[in-house]
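call fold(seq) -> tokens
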Amino acid sequence: MSKVCAVLGVGPGNGEAFVRRFSEEGFQVAMLARSESYLLDLEAAIPGANAFLCDLMQPERITSVLAAIESKLGPISVLLYNAGGGTFKTVEQASLEDFEANWRINVQGLVAATKAALPQLRQHKTASIVVTSASAATRGRANTAPFASAKAAQRSLAQSLARQLGPEKIHVANVLIDGVVDLPRTREMLPDKPDDFFVQPSAVAEAVWSLCQQNPSAWTHELDIRPFGESW
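ret:
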């Protein structure tokens, strides 16, 4: 079977870096995001990249797109769930809709993607599900109430999936990123920060690639990533 990876949540950061890294290894990479023009630009620029328009807040859309990926490229062996936007407010500032939206993108989307992908993943001797998470999953700061609660739920879900699917040799890993990812918008927000303050997406992609190559006798479930100078 062809080597196929699906990246859910592709943007100019970790998502794009995942696409490039797996493409370098000869994978056909399915890219899922809402921005059609951005995906088509990447498809034209990266060998083996395939654009699939998808709103990850819509579980039925995730299901249909995963089916389309299998039809076009073959069954995926790697699922990278990189969607995980957040609302940064206190519990008083945040609306119930804020909490629901954070839960939907971080938890509901992962559930829908896993359900849709499992029949494909099970066609391989080994397979991987990697979730891009954040340090908020382990500590709820005052102004991260919607985001941290959703990320904590996503972390518990990843643990549950790992325990269920590990005996089937489906490796589920949760990657906690503790730091500011190097993006045009974060550079603009923090113009005085040096280069080594930022988390480099290419380095995150390398770590995720390594997770997907681990021997089943020594799997990592949770990996925290931070710049060497980050206070934690």
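The mean pLDDT is 95.
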